[in-house]
C-alpha cells in the first residue's frame, strides 16, 4: 500500500514491473487533460518535462517563449492541433490581421474575415466593436470565432443551417440566431 501512495505511474506484469516517481508538477484543465500555459504540465525531479495545452502536447518553446511564435512558425507547423494552440496563444484576431486573412464582408455589425488553414477548417471570425465604452472612455474591438458556414449554435447544442457570409449573419450566429431574425434593441 505504501508503494501505491508514494509512487507515480505503475505498469505491472507477471515477471516485471515499471514504477516511476511521482511528478513534482502536474497541471490539468477542468476536463482533466494535461494543461499549462505558464510552464510544463508535467515535470519530474530529474528534469523530464511535458508541455501541453488542453491535452495537446506542444514543443517547449510554445510555452516557454510564446513571443517566438510567428505567423511563419504557425503556418509551418504540420500538426493541426499544435497549430491551433499556437494560434490561440498568438491571439486569433491578431493572427487574422498579421497573416493577411481575407476580408469577406463589412457592414454596421462588423467585419467578417476568413483564413484558410492547411489540413483544418478555415478560421472565420467577425470583428465587432464593444458598444459599451471602457472606464477610460475607449471603445474596444473584439474578434469572435464563428462557424465557417455561419451556422447558428442553438441552446440544445445543435447547429442551424448555413447562412450567407455576412457580418450580420456572423454576429447573429454567435447568439443562436439567423441573420434575418437578429434585431437587437439594446447592445451592452
Give structural notes.
The protein has 188 residues and is of the alpha+beta class. It has a domain at 101-188. Helices cover 22% and strands 24% of the residues. The strands form four sheets. The chain has a four-stranded antiparallel beta sheet, with helices on both faces. A three-stranded antiparallel beta sheet has the order 3-4-5, with no helix packed on it. Strands 1-2 form a two-stranded antiparallel sheet. The radius of gyration is 22 Å and the shape is elongated.
User: Separation of termini?
Assistant: 57 Å
Secondary structure: number of strands = 11
Average pLDDT for all residues: 92
**Count of alpha and pi helical runs:** 6
Question: Structural class, from secondary structure content?
Answer: alpha+beta
Q: Strand fraction band? A: 15-25%
Main features:
single chain; alpha+beta; 3-stranded antiparallel sheet; 6 helices; 188 residues
Describe the secondary-structure layout.
Blueprint: H1 2-6, E1 7-12, E2 17-21, E3 25-26, E4 42-43, E5 49-50, E6 52-53, E7 56-57, H2 60-64, H3 71-76, H4 80-90, H5 92-98, E8 102-107, E9 110-115, E10 123-129, E11 141-146, H6 167-174
Antiparallel strand pairs: 1-2, 3-4, 4-5, 6-7, 8-9, 9-10, 10-11
Summarize the structure.
With 188 residues, the chain is of the alpha+beta class.
Amino acid at each position: 500500500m505504501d508503494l501505491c501512495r508514494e509512487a507515480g505511474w505503475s505498469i505491472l506484469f507477471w515477471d516485471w514491473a515499471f514504477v516511476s516517481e511521482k511528478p513534482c508538477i502536474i497541471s490539468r484543465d477542468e476536463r482533466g487533460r494535461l494543461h499549462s500555459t505558464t510552464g510544463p504540465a508535467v515535470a519530474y525531479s530529474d528534469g523530464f518535462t511535458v508541455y501541453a495545452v488542453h491535452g495537446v502536447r506542444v514543443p517547449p518553446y510554445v510555452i516557454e517563449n510564446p513571443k517566438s511564435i510567428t505567423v511563419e512558425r504557425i503556418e509551418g507547423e504540420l500538426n493541426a492541433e499544435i497549430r491551433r494552440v499556437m494560434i490561440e496563444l498568438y491571439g486569433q484576431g491578431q493572427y487574422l490581421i498579421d497573416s493577411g486573412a481575407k476580408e469577406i464582408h463589412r457592414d454596421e455589425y462588423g467585419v467578417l474575415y476568413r483564413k484558410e488553414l492547411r489540413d483544418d477548417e478555415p478560421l472565420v471570425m467577425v470583428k465587432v466593436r464593444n458598444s459599451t465604452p471602457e472606464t477610460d472612455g475607449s471603445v474596444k474591438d473584439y474578434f469572435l470565432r464563428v462557424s465557417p458556414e455561419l451556422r447558428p449554435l442553438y441552446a440544445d447544442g445543435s447547429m442551424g443551417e448555413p447562412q450567407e457570409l455576412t457580418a450580420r449573419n456572423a454576429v447573429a450566429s454567435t447568439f443562436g440566431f439567423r441573420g434575418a431574425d437578429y434585431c437587437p434593441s439594446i447592445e451592452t
